[in-house]
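Input/output pair, single chain:
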Amino acid sequence: MSKYVLALAAVAVAATASAKPPREESPARRDILATVGSGNSDAELQQAIAAAAVHPLGSAENPIRVGGPEGTRAYMQRLRCADGSTPKVGTKAEGGVGGYGSVLALYPIDCGGTAPGKVDLRVDIYHEGHAETRAPAGFRLDR
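Output:
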């Protein structure tokens, strides 16, 4: 075999090995997905915030809105259990699609024997420039 044929065979094997199965469709409604990244108006964002506000902060329907991973770190550093102690923040996991149509991060939070105990909080990192000032039920935020 020539070097050319061997090179083509190697490329074909590599392409087959890296082929991925088709992606599953997002569980988010198509109308929400259509607006993600499309320059939503301020009025649309305010409507989405008002709709989310009827749900508990930190839930999938009303995730904690932060600007990127650094916003998440800053928020978690300020989060306190009811007694003022620092909660244990577990390993981040995929948290589904949230009320704003974006993929969420799920953080297991553990206050031990102190209220609110063990809670899963969902965070939406796609809100550049927003620093959440509220704490989920049972928690408080340091300044």
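The chain is about 30% helix and 25% strand. The first helix runs from residue 3 to 17.
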